[in-house]
Structure formats: C-alpha cells, structure tokens
Specification:
The chain has 618 residues and is of the alpha/beta class. It has 20 helices and 18 strands.
C-alpha cells in the first residue's frame, strides 16, 4: 500500500459519453474530511444518490454501462459534472477487479456500478475474490423498478430479481436495497463503513431504477456526514497482548509469519524493527508485502520454521499453507511446526467469517490468540518487546545473536541457491521462468517500480529487491484475476512516476483480453511482460502428477491444457488496442532490450506497453 497516498497526484479520468475524454488531473486528498455540502438543486432521486456517494469521496466508479442505472449515470455525468470519475470497462468482472487492485494498493475503496441481475452475475467471481482477499469495494447495482407499473415489458422482468443481493450475499460483508429515497443516504453511509472496517470486504447496494428516475417533490434530508465516518479499528485486550509479547520476547528461536498485516504501510518498518529487536526470522506469506525480501532475517523458502521454538502469526487467515508440507498426489499434509513450539497469533480470528465460503481454512492449534486489528496491536507489541529485550542479560544477548546469525546463514544459502538456478538456466529455450524474472529485473531496478500481482512462479521474489512497502500490494489470487487487479494497481500509481510492472500469465489474459482497452483508453502507466507458457500449466502439472501415479501416458497430459495450435499473438492483440508491443520473444538474449524499450515508452508517454516472452511450462 502507499504510505503517502494523501499526497500523490493520481490522475482523474473523466468520460463524457457524448464527447471525447478530457485530460487527466489530480484527485483530492484521501485524508480530507467528508464533504457534506450537496450540489445545488437536486431534481431526481439519482441526484440524491450522487450526493450521498460524493460525501464519501469515491475517487472513481468503474462500470460497464447498463440501462438499470441510466438515471444514476446521467446524474454522475451532468448533475455531478464528472467529479467522481467513471472508468468504462468491457466486462463487469474487470470493473470489480480494477476496484479490487485500486483499493488493495491505495487503502481507499472505490465504487463499482453493475447492471441489474445480469451485470451482477458477470461480476460475481471478482466480488468473491475481493471478499477472500479482504479488500473494500462498494458495489452499486441498478435494480428493478420494483414497482410493476414502472417496468418495461420483458427486459425489466428478465433482468429483475426478488432480493437481488441474494446472488452475492454469501461472499459480501453486507447487501441492501433501499425502498425509499429517504433511506438512500443512510444505506450508502452504512455500506461504506462496513466495507472499510477491518476485516474489510465488498458490499452490494442495489439502487432501484424507479427511485433513480423519480422526480423530487421535496428535498431529501441529509445526515451529518462527519458523524458517520468509519469507526476506529479493533484494539487488543491489553493483558492478553502483554502475555503474548512476553512469551514471544522470551523465545530462543522465534519466527514471525505475517499475512494481511502489510495492508498498513507502517507495518513494513515496524516488522523490521520487531524482527531485529527480538531476533526473529520472518517467513512472509506475500499475501501483502510485509517484509523486505533481501533482509537477512527474511527466511522465506528455508527450513527455519522447523527449528523455531515460537511461531507468531500476524493477521494470517490461512495458518496452514505457510506451515504445512503438502503431498500433492496423496493430498496428505504434515506440519512443519515443532510439536513443542509455542504458537501465538494476533489477528481477526473468527471475526467476520462467512457461513458459506470456507476461505477461513483449517484450524491450527495455538497457545494464545489475541483478537485485534494489527494496525493497532503491532505498534503496541513492538513497544512491549522493546521493553523486555532491553532487560536482557549478557547470556541472553549472545543467544539472540546466535539465532540471528543462523537465520542470516539460511537466508544467504537460499539466495545463493536461487542465483545458481538462474545462472544454470540462462540460455534455456523456451525461456526459463527464472531467466524471465532476472531479465526484467535488470531493467526495472533502475526505475522506481511496482509489481502488480504475479511473481512468475515466485521467481520475482527470489531475484528482485522488494525494499519498500509499496513495491507490491500482494500476490495474485489465481487465473482470471490478475490483469483486472493490475489495472487497478496502475490506476492507483498513476501520476507518481512509478513504473508499474505486470508479469502477466497468458491463461489469465485469455479470460479478459478486453482489459487491454482500459489501460490504453485511460493511459495507465503499465508495463506488461507476458509470462507466456502457452498453457494452463497449473492444471497441466496436476495431470502430469496423476499420469506418473497411475502410469498413464505423460505425453497426453497436455490435452485440454495447452494454449497453442494456434498460439495467441499477444503483441498483435495489444497493438490492436494501441499499445506499444513486441514479441513473441523466444531467445533469452533478446528479453532485456525489448523490456528496456517498453519501459522507456511507458515512462516517456504514460501509456501501456507489452512484451510477449515464450516461457517454459513451469
């Protein structure tokens, strides 16, 4: 996330549907007070809705046009004079994913508008991913009209539903459909507060088309917006936190596992301070960017966990993935936490869990759990641990220094091993994933860069230097999520001068190729380097495992998995949307120069560029 997002000159995107787009300008400071003053002379119900949206300073509203919010659309363009900028998307899933990436990067929710039932269903998958990634998105849907006498024949019926929010209720924090204009301001205020309160997540508010187009006979009273701000975060029980801090500070071989804690920009430096003070290794989940990967106490990818006598989870929802070894063939798991290790946890635990989605994952046995928002608890924990360590006797200081040295050795061994693997594969054809990561790094290291979501099978984390908190908002969530999220990340960094890089899988882009138009139209500073293995290789790999287990032909594992014959020409596709594009590149010696040309184009023009690199299927 951006620590200085109150000051960045992010571009404003203005779409005038009857004219051409306007030039870009800065948005207002996200830390400003709410603006309670409405526009002059609201005439329709949709004007009231816009006044309520405006109070919460939505910087952008992503949408794919729909007739069920035609009244709202007109009010945004003409009554509000485009103050809340609309971002036109070729699909509802892209609109939600873009808002996902923006909020994940900036810490601010933006709005999305979806057309009635069909638009909501198109956006449902992206809503689900925003939910499991704990990202605040406020989704507005056109609905109805609920009144039968206001409905057009056929279309308003087949696109209507009784309680529209049922379609996404199991994976939103809240949904509601106000039945009167008087209910709209409080509904939007509540939705914004719920989405933004941690653990954050999407909300859905259906706005009746009939109410949108209803003329106002009398003014609709507005609340005091300053008294409806997002509540303060959840703090820890002081006694329980002190007990946890004492146990952690006394540990001889502590390890920290951070999850969503990096959503707070301040956590990056606090975690470094905590790890150095206590002498703890950090095994980063990369769900958010929590810790500098080249710091000697970063032990991601090592066996430090198995030697630990104390494990501290910080805002981790899935405690099992980072701590268990998986036998993929037999679906068996083994914990890497020593049986006698003390297990501690600070996070939201059971707060906000869905009774439908099982993204809460398996329970891991713990010795002490403190329920709290780490934005509050982590600074308190650091202060407590500082106090305990300050009273260390000399033998204890030596003990800490020995564990720090052991962790640093593990870190160095891991990085040395990765470097050898990169060197060994430097001339492989098709291009090795490690080679791709290093070639891109040799270019972007000279820029102030940001990585959007994909890590090219973790190789960016093994080659690049993630030295600042804003280097990435966190890892990808799976196929059909990355390009949309990357658009939102690029939008959040627009105007900062940073080079936004997307190591883009081919299978993911095949789902949402139209997303390229958005980056071109809104001139997003996005450098896409295709991690193109011409396959849905994650599933291909599963078929290879089963083939080995069952003795079926390994050479048939690709059936139903390849993206080849014909191979998509992503460079030509990008050029059709007015991108700068090169490729497909098959020789590893050609990658760096092509990426350099593309990076220079993005930085000099502010427009997107793509380099297509054909890689090994792994």
């Amino acid at each position: 996330m951006l620590s200085d997002y109150g000051n960045w000159p992010i571009g404003l995107i203005i779409v005038v549907l009857v004219s051409s787009r306007r030039r870009l300008g800065p948005i207002a400071d996200s830390k400003e007070a709410l603006l309670p003053a409405p526009y002059q002379n609201p005439t329709y119900g949709s004007d009231v809705m816009v006044d309520a949206m405006r109070a919460f300073r939505f910087p952008y509203l992503a949408l794919n046009p729909g007739s069920s919010f035609r009244g709202l659309h007109d009010s945004l363009v003409n009554y509000a004079n485009d103050e809340m900028q609309m971002i036109e998307c070729p699909h509802e899933k892209i609109a939600v994913a873009l808002a996902h990436g923006y909020a994940k990067t900036s810490g601010r929710p933006m709005g999305v508008i979806l057309h009635n039932v069909v638009g909501l269903l198109h956006g449902a998958m992206a809503i689900y991913y925003a939910y499991i990634d704990r990202v605040p998105v406020v989704i507005f849907g056109g609905s109805g009209p609920a009144a039968y006498d206001r409905r057009r024949p056929n279309i308003d019926w087949i696109h209507g539903a009784n309680v529209q929010g049922n379609a996404v209720r199991d994976y939103t924090k809240w949904d509601y459909e106000p039945r009167s204009l008087e209910s709209v301001p409080a509904t939007i205020a509540r939705g914004y507060r719920i989405a933004s309160s941690e653990p954050a997540g999407p909300v859905y508010i259906a706005l009746d088309a009939g109410l949108q187009e209803q003329p106002l006979d009398d003014p609709i009273p507005m609340p005091d917006w300053d008294r409806l701000k997002v509540p303060a975060p959840i703090g820890p029980d002081p006694s329980a936190l002190r007990q946890l801090a004492e146990a952690f500070a006394k540990a001889k071989r502590p390890v920290i596992i951070p999850g969503h804690v990096g959503r707070d920009p301040n956590a990056f430096d606090l975690l470094v301070h905590l790890a150095e003070t206590v002498g703890a290794g950090v095994l980063d989940t990369n769900i958010r960017h929590n810790f500098p990967n080249r710091h000697p106490l970063c032990v991601t990818g090592t066996n430090a966990l198995e030697a630990a006598d104390c494990v501290l989870f910080l805002d981790v929802k899935d405690m099992q993935k980072a701590t268990h070894e998986l036998d993929s063939i037999n679906r068996k798991i083994r914990s890497k936490i020593a049986q006698d290790a003390v297990v501690l946890d600070i996070g939201f635990n059971d707060v906000g869990l869905s009774s439908w989605s099982e993204d809460y994952t398996a329970l891991v046995e713990t010795d002490l759990q403190v329920t709290a928002d780490t934005t509050v608890a982590l600074p308190m924990l650091v202060d407590m641990c500082d106090g305990y360590v300050a009273h260390d006797a000399e033998p204890r200081r030596v003990e800490r220094a020995e564990w720090r040295a052991r962790l640093a050795n593990l870190h160095d061994e891991a990085w040395s091993g990765w470097a050898h693997r990169v060197d060994d594969s430097a001339t492989d054809k098709p291009v090795a994933t490690a080679t791709l990561a290093r070639a891109v790094w040799e270019v972007v290291k000279d820029y102030d860069w940001v990585l959007t979501a994909g890590t090219a099978s973790e190789w960016a984390k093994r080659v690049w230097d993630f030295d600042k908190h804003y280097r990435t908002p966190g890892k990808q969530l799976g196929t059909a999520t990355q390009i949309g999220i990357s658009l939102g990340v690029a939008l959040a960094h627009k105007g900062t001068g940073r080079l936004v890089v997307d190591l883009q899988p081919d299978g993911d882009l095949m789902f949402d190729a139209g997303a390229l138009w958005v980056a071109s139209y809104y001139e997003l500073p996005l450098l896409v380097v295709m991690f193109n293995n011409r396959a849905y290789y994650n599933d291909w790999e599963h078929q290879e495992r089963l083939a080995r287990q069952r003795g079926t032909p390994l050479e048939r594992a690709h059936i139903g998995m390849e993206i080849d014959n014909p191979a998509p020409d992503f460079a030509t596709l990008a050029r059709s949307f007015s991108w700068h594009a090169e490729g497909p590149i098959t020789d590893p010696a050609d990658i760096e120069k092509a990426v350099q040309r593309a990076a220079e184009y993005v930085q000099s023009t502010g427009k997107p560029a793509l380099v297509d690199v054909v890689c090994q299927p792994k």
